[in-house]
């Protein structure tokens, strides 16, 4: 079953002049009891941060936090002592675990565009940890590129404490991808640009598809497209 959520249904938030966000799930001032999470995917924010701006230090706990940089670069500092730059095409994972605080700034003269995803961890009380990798995911064509996963069989991928895998695809016009799944898994798709057909349903820019009880997810690009696909456990026992 495919649930289609058009771009207009995203919650738009611009709490300060330098931040423009779209929340795909309940977050901050947006609360919808029917849209809290999809499996362990608890937060998906599509954020644009203007030049010379950013988030001051703030705390987190008991979450796996993943940041994908689509444009620009993020200056990250945290209470573990990490001081890093996450640049376009790079992936960052932070295990908040028992507690961590961090800041995220755009020190450049151009806007920063990121996706930030929070996942419920597969266990509580984990020690805070950090990983960052240049996967150059924006350059690969016509395949699903794994970015972050809880499946240790995948190589050259950021690891997180969740039975989940996040993929990226840059799919050329008329190209197709077939993703095999199981009814015990869910699939989440969010389109950055272009138009794709998922199991026959048209999905456009900033639209979502949430799939349950499927064996195969067939995707065809109507035009050159970029999208994120997340493979998730369907039941809490498998998070």
Automatic annotation (TrEMBL):
Parts of the chain that traverse the membrane: none
* Ranges where the Quercetin 2,3-dioxygenase C-terminal cupin domain occurs: 155-232
Q: Which Pfam families does the entry mention? A: Pirin, Pirin_C_2
User: What's the superkingdom here?
Assistant: Bacteria
Gene3D superfamilies linked: Jelly Rolls
CDD domains cross-referenced by the UniProt entry: cupin_Yhhw_N
UniProt feature coiled coil, ranges: none
Q: Which SUPFAM superfamilies match?
A: RmlC-like cupins
PANTHER family, per the entry: QUERCETIN 2,3-DIOXYGENASE (PTHR43212:SF3)
Q: What does the similarity note say?
A: Belongs to the pirin family.
Descriptive protein name: Pirin family protein
